[in-house]
Write a structure and sequence with these properties.
Chain A: This is DUF5723 family protein. Chain A: Residues 1-18 form the signal peptide. Chain A: It comes from Christiangramia lutea. The complex is a heterodimer of chains A (469) and B (180). Chain A has 469 residues and is an alpha+beta fold. Chain A has a single domain, classed as Porin. Chain A is 15% helix and 49% strand. Chain A contains nine helices and 21 strands. Chain A has a 21-stranded antiparallel sheet that branches. Chain A is elongated and about 115 Å long. Chain A starts with a helix and ends with a strand. Chain B has a single domain, classed as Jelly Rolls. Chain B has a four-stranded antiparallel sheet with strand order 1-8-3-6. Chain B has a four-stranded antiparallel sheet with strand order 2-7-4-5. Chain B is mainly beta. Chain B is built from three helices and eight strands; from the N terminus they run αββαββββαββ. Chain B starts with a helix and ends with a strand. Classes of the chains: A alpha+beta (469), B mainly beta (180). At the A-B interface, helix 1, helix 3, helix 4, helix 5 and strand 9 of A face helix 1, strand 1, strand 2 and strand 8 of B.
Chain lengths: 469, 180
């Protein structure tokens, strides 16, 4: 079973990147830019997404290992490669998977300055640090690590599936400043989190002590919170397909709720130069129903069992040393399942960028036209990141955005982040009358051989977008 | 320029869908094994002359023994995944007498699976006598440990009487190698 999990884990590296989508950020003729920055400048008056197809987003990655690192076909010494990877990877390396599907997306202009947008999307987000110490203990044991502390804090992960209902307003304050906000109602489908764990396991030599070693579990405090899992677990004989069906049935009526906010702005410093920034998912999930918490805590140490050589008659039983040891162990290291409500922060995302435009478009000479000329070449840089249990993840993206015509646009991007120093991205968006289709992929070098890629991400969608003449 | 739209889209989609995994063999996943080596303390004791004297009569008891059940030897991970064991036994004798030690591993039915027996020489001129022994079980022999569930420790002091004085320390550990 663990082998399948490992394969799945490694396989997930064929898709990657964090939740941020720099290829869609600041794309003023895509409604999805409003999900990145509700205060973005936009260039349309109405949009209606194709249900379930207006945005399909997949991203995943791993900062410390690729499929090639383990499954290289150069030789058959796969176990040595696993050991090498475990030695090189750190407890701050991580694996992440993020997926979003827009179920519904629509928006329209409100008055002269506002644009209202609303919709529903489903999101899956998994983020797990590499549990280095527990993994080394499991793979190699303690024999070569006498005296070393194995930290339970290395086990840190979050996972959630939820549906997000949102409504936002984009407001053009004046010719320079645009601001926006988006209110989000989260409907939780499933959540698991285990962060802030504590405790150490170690084996130390005890010269002069009662035995060779002392094995210690010190101040163990591990907690795994779950919501939406207990009811699945209690369904005896439920197949994977049935479990997936059950989860999907909760998509629109999840049991746990949360509230969140996106905020953003765009400021045109000059006609050509603008700065902007946004935060997404400043919010909390309140897990109150279908909750189970698994707690493991305590301290324990032992040097083995000590026989006492009691004077026993032939009919007397030996002292039950093992039972006594187990009772002491159970008293000292306890596990407890509770049903306490808990609250989680949503992973806060943030973006900040500046953009410089050159090459004004030439508009037809028509006094009825209210549009201002656009810049056909846009150069920008985005700093983006997300809050995670052990600190923020981050990336820097530089891009060239080219509006070939009013109906065809592409963006070429180069990014540096924790996955790779050479991330090339490409986005193309095209309109056929009012029908828009876009496709964006990051780390396209990695697509040539996914086995060697630390990350990749993909966004695609189709929708109807209406613009003023 | 609109004529470029479809070729660009097709080219881009084609690139994405032509992506593949190269130079890897996922079939190797079947060969991945967990092979932890665990160092684990087993039994220890410190005996003095009082342990060889009857607590009521004060008579010298040259042979003493005790039995310790090690229930973990019956667990699945031992029965299915234990491949190698190196058991280390160390005696430090301060008594001015030889002591015979016999460590017997027994099955549930009391049948002897294997034993480690040796004589611990007497301390000479106040210098502690040390016997440090390693018993390795691997290959077919590992079955003997898998079948074991209890250890019987027996000590026999040779040539002493009730006036004996000294101390006997015992340390033991196991190096257990698993393959999962």
């Amino acid at each position: 079973m663990w082998k399948k999990a490992l394969i799945l884990f490694v396989f997930s590296t064929f898709l990657a990147n964090a939740q941020n989508r720099p290829l869609l950020y600041n794309v003023d003729d895509l409604p999805q830019s409003l999900l990145q920055n509700p205060g973005a400048r936009i260039d349309f008056t109405k949009h209606i997404g194709m249900p379930f197809l207006s945005q399909i987003h997949l991203s995943a990655g791993s900062t410390g290992v690729t499929a090639y690192d383990i499954f290289s076909d150069e030789n058959n010494n796969v176990n040595q490669r696993v050991r090498d990877v475990m030695n090189s990877i750190t407890n701050r390396d991580y694996f992440s998977v993020n997926q979003q599907i827009e179920v519904l997306s629509l928006g329209w202009k409100v008055g002269n300055k506002g644009y209202f947008s609303t919709g529903i999307y489903q999101e899956l987000d998994v983020f797990a640090y590499f549990p280095k110490d527990p993994a080394i203990l499991a793979f190699e044991g303690n024999a070569d690590y006498i005296g070393r502390d194995f930290k339970f804090s290395d086990a840190s992960f979050t996972g959630e599936i939820l549906t997000v209902y949102h409504a936002g307003l984009n407001y053009k304050v004046d010719a320079k400043l645009t601001v926006g906000g988006r209110f989000k109602l989260y409907s939780g489908i499933f959540n698991v989190e285990s962060t802030g764990n504590e405790g150490i396991f170690r084996t130390i030599e005890t010269p002069g002590g009662p035995n060779f070693y002392r094995h210690e579990v010190s101040e163990l405090n591990v907690r795994i919170n779950t919501s939406g899992y207990a009811s699945l677990k209690d369904e005896e004989g439920m197949t994977v397909d049935q479990a997936v069906s059950e989860l999907l049935s909760r998509s629109f009526f999840g049991q746990n709720v949360g509230l969140g906010l996106d905020l953003g702005f765009n400021y045109r410093v000059t006609d050509q130069f603008s700065v902007n920034g946004s935060i997404q998912d400043l919010g909390l999930m309140f897990h109150q129903k279908d909750v189970e918490n698994y707690n493991y805590y305590g301290s324990f140490q032992t040097s083995g069992l000590e026989p006492l050589f009691p004077e026993l008659d032939d009919n007397e039983q030996a002292i039950p040393y093992w039972e006594i040891f187990e009772e002491r162990l159970d008293r000292s290291l306890q596990d407890e399942t509770t049903e306490n409500a808990y609250t989680t922060w949503r992973p806060l995302k943030y973006n900040a960028s500046f953009q410089f435009g050159t090459g004004k478009s030439i508009l037809p000479c028509d006094y009825l036209l209210s549009k201002k000329p656009r810049f056909m070449n846009l150069f920008g840089m985005i700093i983006s990141g997300a809050n995670r249990p052990k600190g923020p993840t981050y990336g820097v993206t530089a891009y060239w955005d080219r509006k070939v015509t009013d109906n065809l646009r592409f963006r070429l991007a180069y990014a540096v982040d924790e996955y790779t120093l050479t991330k090339l991205g490409f986005m193309v968006s095209s309109r056929f009358k009012n029908f828009n289709i876009y496709l964006a992929a990051n780390d396209i070098i990695g697509y040539t051989n996914l086995a060697n890629a630390n990350s990749a991400s993909l966004q695609l969608g189709m929708q109807f977008i209406f613009k003023d003449l | 320029m609109d004529s470029l739209k479809i070729p660009i889209l097709v080219l881009f989609v084609g690139l994405l869908f032509s992506s593949c995994f190269k130079d890897v063999d996922f079939g190797q996943a079947e060969d991945i094994t967990l092979e932890p080596d665990l160092e684990v303390d087993l039994l220890y004791y410190t005996l003095t002359e009082t342990d060889f004297l009857d607590s009521e009569s004060g008579n010298f008891t040259p042979v003493i023994r005790d039995t310790v059940r090690l229930e973990f030897l019956d667990d699945d991970y031992i029965q299915e995944n234990l491949m190698y064991a190196a058991l280390r036994f160390k005696h430090e004798n301060d008594f001015p007498y030889d002591i015979k030690s016999n460590i017997r591993f027994l099955g549930e039915n009391g049948r002897n699976q294997f034993n480690v027996a040796y004589t611990i020489p007497s301390a000479e001129d106040g210098n502690t006598s040390i016997v440090d022994t390693v018993r390795v079980l691997e290959g077919n022999e590992i079955v003997r440990l898998r079948r074991s569930i209890q250890i019987v420790l027996q000590l026999e002091v040779v040539g002493a009487d009730k006036d004996l004085q000294g101390e006997l320390d015992f340390l033991s550990k196991g190096l257990f190698r698993f393959e999962f």
